Amino acid sequence: MTAYELIVVGGGPAGMAAALGAWDAGARRVLLLEQAGRLGGVLPQCVHTGFGLYEYGEELTGPEYAARQAARLKRTGVEVRTNAAVLELGAGGRVTVLSGTEGLMTLTARAVVLAAGARERPAGALPITGTRPAGVFTAGQAQQLLNLGGYDIGRRAVILGSGDIGMIVARRLALEGRPPVAVVEQAPRCGGLARNRVQCLEEFGIPLLLSSTVTRLSGKARLEGVWVRREDGRADFLPCDALITSVGLLPEDELLLPFRGAELPGWLFPCGNARRIYDLVDRAAADAARLGREIARWLRGGPPPRREAAEDSAPAAPGPGAGELICLCCPAGCLLSAGPEGGVTGAGCEKGEAFYRQEQVERRRWLTLVVTVQGVRVPLRTTRPIPRALFGPVARAARRAALFLPLGAGQIVVADPGDWGCDLAVQCDCPG
Ligand SMILES: Cc1cc2nc3c(=O)[nH]c(=O)nc-3n(C[C@H](O)[C@H](O)[C@H](O)COP(=O)(O)OP(=O)(O)OC[C@H]3O[C@@H](n4cnc5c(N)ncnc54)[C@H](O)[C@@H]3O)c2cc1C
Ligand code: SF4
């Protein structure tokens, strides 16, 4: 048995932040266990921007955010083991691990942080009748197949659920030249952030069907369409070859099963999505880092760590009225409009006014995409937001470019593809 001060289960953003927080506050003999072959959790498949706005003040993509955290971790003495799945947590901080290189191990720790993330609610959990053809995916699966696998998951998808993940997948499909038929939402309002509704659906002309739900699948080998029940009871048939469900995440807390029905033991601390579902990685990481720091102090005789997490504060903003627009610069989604004497009202910070003025002249957005280089999927991004009209030409230039591995994070691979003064850069290291 090997003894540690702290073992962190899960190397996603929350697990990495907890280990970093604990190390920075003085904990030593800290071990991070990750079942996958790399750190980052769900972030490597999230090639869109929208991460790190609060923590780094930048619009990072998922792979970029994960790489920053992993680099910080490397500068500490935290021991990291990948390909190491935790099978069981037992009395007194006993951790049973199956390692791809070392086999079955039993470790002990004075404190254990569970940062195992979340799993998606599957389509089978929904009251949908009909056949069970191929072509039904959860949003996370669809994102993984598209972005990391480069698979063709369908040409005409219907998305069920208007949370942020569903809308982000809708935009991804639109950028691949296959805009979804519709996003179907059972509630009377959009489930995700206003900024995602605007930049993922409205700007691509993807219909959002509110107060509606999918009740039936149709198709034999492959999905041929879905029946959608509308608010007035009417049922419409939407022909499609893929149904992507985005109907909620559930904390991955199976390792807590032995402790169900009783108070969690004093050495065990769930965090990140394993504790409750976060919509922003920055908040998951901030809570986890705080927990890590408090555990380190507690291990040295300080007060016990607080177990509660901060609530997400990003409000679901109402839709813009005439003359108004939603600021897309951060998740707050302020409603902006022209104020007296040429000013702008509604902005929560100075960025809002600049955004409003830019929108009057021209809409500019970040473009992210994935290309295949010698069989490896390489995520790219523009080095600044570009006019929406340039999305098509820039994406075509990226797909035509002759690229070769290895490619490094931040490397410019296509210089000024739109003749506009903006380059295309690689999001993460892609070794040969
Ligand atoms: C599709 C999608 C899009 C998103 N878009 C955004 C966005 O634009 N902006 C934003 O801020 N946030 C976004 N988020 C939210 C953000 O990604 C999450 O808040 C964050 O990933 C939660 O971090 P986590 O570490 O708790 O979980 P995860 O990232 O899921 O990491 C959990 C890790 O634990 C590992 N693990 C699980 N069980 C074990 C075990 N038994 N043993 C060892 N390891 C284990 C897993 O392999 C995984 O690596 C998005 C989330 C998703 C799913
Ligand atoms: S104006 Fe509002 S939405 Fe825009 S960056 Fe400032 S706080 Fe965020």
Layout of secondary structure:
Elements: E1 2-9, H1 13-24, E2 30-33, E3 49-51, E4 60-61, H2 62-74, E5 79-81, E6 84-90, E7 94-99, E8 103-114, E9 118-120, E10 129-130, E11 136-138, H3 139-149, E12 157-160, H4 164-175, E13 182-184, H5 194-201, E14 208-209, E15 213-218, E16 225-229, E17 235-239, E18 242-245, E19 249-251, E20 268-270, H6 281-299, E21 324-326, E22 335-338, E23 344-345, H7 350-361, E24 364-365, E25 368-373, E26 376-382, E27 386-387, H8 391-400, E28 412-414, E29 424-426
Parallel strand pairs: 1-2, 1-8, 2-5, 8-20, 10-15, 11-18, 12-13, 12-18, 13-14
Antiparallel strand pairs: 3-4, 6-7, 7-8, 9-19, 15-16, 16-17, 21-22, 22-23, 24-27, 25-26, 26-29, 28-29
Helix pairs in contact: 1-2, 1-6, 3-4, 4-5
Iron/sulfur cluster binds near residues 334 and 351.
Characterise this structure.
With 432 residues, this protein is α/β, with parallel strands linked by helices. The protein folds into four domains: 2-119 and 250-299, FAD/NAD(P)-binding domain; 123-247, FAD/NAD(P)-binding domain, CATH 3.50.50; 324-361, no CATH class; 368-426, CPE0013-like fold. The protein is built from eight helices and 29 strands. The chain has helices at 13-24, 62-74, 139-149, 164-175, 194-201, 281-299, 350-361, 391-400; strands at 2-9, 30-33, 49-51, 60-61, 79-81, 84-90, 94-99, 103-114, 118-120, 129-130, 136-138, 157-160, 182-184, 208-209, 213-218, 225-229, 235-239, 242-245, 249-251, 268-270, 324-326, 335-338, 344-345, 364-365, 368-373, 376-382, 386-387, 412-414, 424-426. The strands form eight sheets. Strands 1, 2, 5, 6, 7, 8 and 20 form a seven-stranded mixed β-sheet that branches. Strands 11-18-12-13-14 form a five-stranded parallel β-sheet. Strand 12, helix 4 (164-175) and strand 13 (182-184) form a beta-alpha-beta unit. Helix 1 (13-24) runs parallel beside helix 2 (62-74), helix 3 runs parallel beside helix 4 and helix 4 (164-175) runs parallel beside helix 5 (194-201). The longest helix has 19 residues, at 281-299. It is globular, with a radius of gyration of 23 Å. The two termini are 38 Å apart. The mean pLDDT is 93. The structure holds flavin-adenine dinucleotide and iron/sulfur cluster.
